[in-house]
Amino acid sequence: MKTVRIAVWVAVLLMAGILGWLTLNVTKTKDAVSEGPFGVPFTLVAQNGQPITEQAFRGKPTALFFGFTHCPEVCPTTLFEMNGWLEKVDPEGKKLQAYFVTVDPERDTPEVMNQYVSNVSKRIVGISGAPDKVADVIKGYRVYAKKVPVDESKPDGDYTMDHTASVFLLDAAGRFAGTIAYGENPDTAVKKLENLVSKG
């Protein structure tokens, strides 16, 4: 009987040790994920027609927005506001950068992005590319984007895009550092960007 009790205790201690080890390793893995750059590697096309990769989101804190040029309200409003925040927080453009990635690459060619973004800001860089590669980036950055027909009876006709409306904030190492919600108080948005710059 005593031998059975000892065996049970040994088994319990062994299980506790295994669970402790597993918990420690899961925690380490989560920490490693949160410490790594946000998103996925990619090669897309900047609005000037040049290749651009995820390395563009390194070296300086980054404000990153996903949208499309046919967007009736959210995207033009957000780009206009982003430009104002950038001018207020970093008027010389040396500490902070911003990008606008299309979720509608079929219509938003680099040329279209260049014309659209340039009308709003000299500080924000538009990004497009092949639809399959853009789709990978959308998924990798955990952005919601869905094509929605304007007329449901004509699924192949004109369409709009439902998409995540928040601005993603990345630190200088490309790590996720928060978001600015659509319609957020301008003072709060500016403060978030100031904090982002101060942390680097």
UniProtKB/TrEMBL annotation:
GO terms for molecular function: metal ion binding. The keyword GTP-binding does not apply. Residues 33-198 form the Thioredoxin domain. Disulfide bonds join 71-75. Keywords: Copper, Disulfide bond, Membrane, Metal-binding, Transmembrane, Transmembrane helix. Cu cation binds at residues 71, 75, 163. The chain crosses the membrane at residues 6-24. It holds the Pfam family SCO1-SenC. SUPFAM superfamilies: Thioredoxin-like (SSF52833). Belongs to the SCO1/2 family. This is Sco copper chaperone family protein.
